[in-house]
Structures are given as C-alpha cells and as structure tokens.
Design goal:
586 residues, alpha/beta, 18 strands, globular, disordered C terminus, F-box domain-containing protein
Length: 586
C-alpha cells in the first residue's frame, strides 16, 4: 500500500523516521524507497571513526573524494564524533566514573576511550591512520552545501585533526551553525595550557555558535585552565568575522564555586557594536554568577536564556531576574538547572513563554511554603502561558507537590500546544518489585490509588494531541541517604517501565487507547527510550522493548546505533502513517 502512494507523500512519510540507521534500512528495501530516501539519508552524515568502527567513516571519506558529484551536494549537516582508529569506547567507563565520584585519585581511571599499545603494529589500524590522513582534508573541501557542523574534538583525536579540520572548514562559505565541543586531557599540566589553534575558520555568515568543554574525569582545577584556553581564542576569532549571529552558547564544563568570569570584554572587543544586540538566544554554563545581572544590559534583545549553575547556590539568580524585569525583557524560553522563587515572581509578571525547563526545587520541607510554591506555580502561573507553551520540563529533586499527580493534572492538561513534556512522578500507585524491601514503599500497597503512568497517558490522549516526546523519571523520596535515594529511584523507574509494558499487553482491553498514545509519542524513562513496537502479526500482538538511546546519541558512538529489522519495516511505516493522520485530523 505504501509503495502505491505518490513519491512526494512517500518522501514525507519516510522523513518521519527519526533514526538515520532506520532510514538506511528502509532505503535498502526497494529501489523506489531508495530514490525517495536518498536526500534524507545523505542530508546528515557523521564521521565516527574508532577501532571498532573503521569502515563506515573511511568509506564515507572515500566516497566524498572519488564520487563527490553523487554524495557531496546532498550533505547539509556534518557530525564529527571521533577520528581515532587506535582508540575504542571503554567498556568499564560507567563503573569507573561512579567510583571516581567518591575517590579523587580515581579521576585518572575515568576514560571514556582507551587504546591497546599492540594496535600500533596492527596492519589494519596503520592503514586506517594513513587513509584518514590522506582523505580527511580533500573530503571535507567537497562539502560546498554544508550548513551545520557539530564537532566533538577529543584529546585522543590528536592535534593534527584539529588543525586539518579548521583549515578545511575555512574553504566552505555556507556554514551557518558551528558547534564545537572539546574534551581536554585531564593530566596535562596546568602551566602548559595555551591556545591550541594554529588555524581557525573564517565563517562570515554564522548564525549559531556553540563552544563547550565536556568532562571526562577532569577536575574543576584542570578545567579552569583548559576552558578559557580553548573557548576564548575560538570565540573572539569567530565573533570578529560575523555580523549575523543570533545564538551563542558558551560552557566551561565547571560545576564548582570557583568559576572564571564571563568574557564580556572579550566579546565586546571582538564584535562590532551591533552584534550583541542581534543575539536573541544565549546559553551559558560554568561561569561566575556575579555576571548574571549584567546579561540583560549586554544582550538587550534576548528572547531565550539558558543558565547552568551546577552545584553553586542559586541565590545569585535573584539579581538576574530583577535585572530582566528592570530592563523589560520578557523571555520566551527559560532553561535553568536551578529553581528559585524569584523565577516564579518573574514568570508570573507576563504571558507568552514557549519553553520552560528547570530542575528543582532541590530541597524538601514539610512546612506549608513548600507546597504553597507548587500550588502557586500550577494553580496561577502555568495558566498564564498555557496558550504558548510547547515545551514544559519540571524536575523536582524530591517527591512532593511539585511532582506530577492528580492535583496538577488539570493545569498541565490545559497546555494543549505542548510537544515536549518532562515530569517526575509520585510513586503512589505505580507497580513496585515485591523484592524491593524499603519501608517507605508501604504506601504503594493501596490498590485503590490510581496508577499515575495511566493517568498521564490518559491526559495526553485527551488534552495534548500535539505531544511528540514524553520524559518520565522518579524523584528521590528523602534526603536522609544518597544510597537509599538512588535505590528508591531505581525501584520506581522499574515500576514505570512495568506499567508501560502492561499498557502494551493486548490482553488488557482497557489499555487500548493508551497503546495508541505510545504509537505517536516517544517515551523516555530516566533518559532511556521505551520503544513500543507492533510486530505486525496476525493476532495483532504487541511487544515492548527497552531500547537504550541515551541523550548522548548526538555524541560518540550513539548516533545510528539502533537497528530496524526488515520484518518490522511495514509496521514502522504504518505507525508513522497513523501518526501523520492523527496530526492532520486530530
């Protein structure tokens, strides 16, 4: 049936497939789908070369050099994740990273990437290095239609790749968005940090600039030296050559109280007099909070602001929100990793917010004011923005009135334009593993308590027809013990997944409508994708699989890591077609 549709409609349906690997598998099924999907498959490409993934990236470079007229014109977005044939992802990274949180000496163990010295003599690895050095520069220079670059330079990739790519990108005139993230080596002595760039690209039409430092066991002390050495020269160079910048993101990766001052002076000296006024979207992280009140003064036309404070106190946010109000700046997008009552005062003064995301409150109290702030937000403030909100994310640290429940169900349901919703659920009524023996789970034995997973899906079905992504997680139960809090969260997350799996059971007729929601809404539990997949059998049986698609899918080896079995292609296209029909008629 799908193949009987016009080419234009087939292209639109195929464009609804999110994962690149799924698009590739669909493309291989028949020649017609192959032709329809070619522009979609080639519009985004990635270079992710490491020991266990040599061929895809090297084959892409070879194709760009030797068949550039076939491939290069379609490429609009380039991801550069890894350029190191010797290294490979450390299978013990997650365990070591957890240990390093408790023992400072273990920071040297925390490596996301490792290598084997024997590979220096491995013929396949040696050949891959030679091929990479030969093809990288000429391949990148063929991408004349390239508009967006997302590049993560890791210390393992060596500095020659840094210089080569910077020089290659200088030959491309159409780049409008440039995102550069770096993971410096933790053990490099602080006194030797210097400007690592000998060549920088000359982007004259840049609209989006993002520069960030990513941690991999790096101490805050090392980042205080490496972050400015990487961020400042690249930022000042690019700002001095563009007049059209609207989005700026700068993050040092630092979470402690000792952070560098935000480089207002460097930005002013590098840019022309109108550039700061043209910036409407600002995202900062790991800078001194003392500069927050000056943000509205230097960026008078802000419509979007994202601030990452880390472990520092959020008291400095009061000055920021006072300054925003004083300068009559009404943000349409607010993303903060802290919650304060000053934020409530600010967002209660106007309407029209489109994106609202915050973590907190990160404290809990039995006193009435804790519940009062939640009641104020859901009962009074959220309604001011219900006609404009497309993304809402409220992530309280502890279980209480701020979590999703029946008392705020109606308020959230009124935000009918939501496309993204992130909440933390109270545990009452959620399935709990009987082997999970903690005293505070006794409250869950009351079977009359509604299952909030079901309640949430029912609300989405009734009130949120435009929702595309749902993120669910568990708060901590109390602050008495980190270990018990973590164990509590794991138990509730397992309960959430069990509830979702029950929705997928075709034998439970009362869940039929909820199953429909899972077909058109992507659901994530604690950052992991819960994938509802109809297997297409004659008895219409359903199955659920937990597919790990971490938010790091845009970095490292995550992108394109999933697979779509050929036998499920038909059912996947049916689901996509159903979702499009819902949006057109719903």
């Amino acid at each position: 049936m799908i193949l009987s549709l016009p080419n234009e409609l087939i292209g639109k349906i195929c464009n609804e497939v999110d994962r690149l690997e799924d698009k590739k598998n669909l493309q291989r099924t028949c020649s017609r789908l192959g032709r329809a999907l070619r522009p979609h498959v080639l519009s985004e490409v990635s270079l992710n070369i490491h020991k266990h993934n040599l061929k895809p990236g090297l084959n892409l470079l070879h194709a760009l050099v030797h068949q550039k007229e076939v491939y290069s014109p379609h490429i609009r977005t380039l991801y550069i994740d890894s350029l190191s044939p010797t290294f490979f992802p450390n299978p013990e990274f997650a365990r070591k990273q957890e240990l390093a949180k408790h023992t400072w000496e273990l920071f040297e163990m925390v490596r996301g990437w490792v290598s084997d010295p024997i590979d220096d003599r491995n013929p396949e690895i040696v050949k891959a290095h030679t091929t990479l050095k030969t093809l990288l520069d000429p391949a990148l220079r063929t991408l004349h239609n390239l508009e967006t670059v997302h590049w993560h330079w890791h210390w393992k990739d060596s500095e020659w790749t840094l210089q080569t790519i910077m020089e290659s990108l200088s030959s491309l005139n159409g780049i409008k968005s440039f995102s550069f993230s770096s993971t410096p080596h933790v053990s490099r002595p602080a006194e030797v940090w210097h400007n690592p760039f000998t060549q920088l690209p000359n982007f004259s039409n840049l609209h989006v600039l993002s520069i960030s430092i990513l941690t991999e066991g790096n101490t805050n002390a090392s980042l205080r030296n490496s972050a400015p050495a990487i961020i400042l020269p690249l930022m000042t160079h690019l700002l001095s050559r563009t007049t059209s910048l609207s989005h700026l993101h700068l993050d040092t990766g630092i979470s402690s109280s000792s952070c560098p001052s935000f480089p207002f002076d460097d930005i002013s000296q590098a840019s022309n007099t109108t550039l700061l006024s043209s910036i409407t979207h600002l995202s900062i992280g790991g800078w001194s909070i003392d500069i927050l009140p000056d943000i509205p003064i230097h960026f008078p036309n802000l419509t979007s602001l994202s601030v990452r404070i880390g472990r520092r106190s959020g008291h400095g946010l009061k000055w920021l929100f006072d300054s925003l109000s004083f300068n009559d700046i009404r943000l349409r997008s607010i993303v903060f990793d802290k919650f304060t009552e000053d934020m409530l005062d600010y967002i209660s003064s106007y309407s029209g917010i489109e994106t609202l995301s915050f973590i907190g409150p990160n404290w809990y109290s039995e006193r009435p004011e804790y519940g009062f702030t939640a009641e104020r937000f859901y009962g009074e403030i959220l309604g001011l923005h219900r006609d404009s909100l497309v993304k809402l994310e409220v992530l309280p640290t502890f279980e209480g009135e701020w979590c999703f429940g029946e008392d705020n169900l109606e308020a959230i349901g009124r935000c009918e334009k939501l496309r993204y919703l992130g909440v933390r659920l109270r545990s009452a009524g959620i399935y709990v593993d009987p082997n999970f023996d903690l005293w505070f789970f006794e409250q869950l034995t009351n079977e009359s308590t509604p299952n909030l997973v079901y309640t949430l899906l029912d609300m989405i079905n009734t009130n949120l027809p435009h929702l595309q992504s749902l993120h669910i997680d568990s708060p901590h139960f109390g602050d008495s013990s980190t270990r018990s809090g973590t164990k509590y969260c794991r138990g509730v997350r397992k309960g959430i997944r069990k509830s979702l799996e029950a929705v997928c059971d075709p034998c439970i007729e009362e869940n039929a409508v909820r199953r429909g929601v899972l077909r058109w809404v992507k659901v994530y539990v604690a950052g992991e994708r819960f994938e509802f997949e109809s297997m297409g059998s004659s008895d219409n049986s359903c199955a659920a699989a937990i597919a790990i698609e971490r938010d790091q899918a845009r970095r490292g080896g995550g992108r394109g890591g999933g697979s779509l079995k050929r036998k499920s292609i038909g059912s996947r296209l049916k689901a996509i077609t159903a979702r499009m029909s819902w949006r057109l008629t719903g």
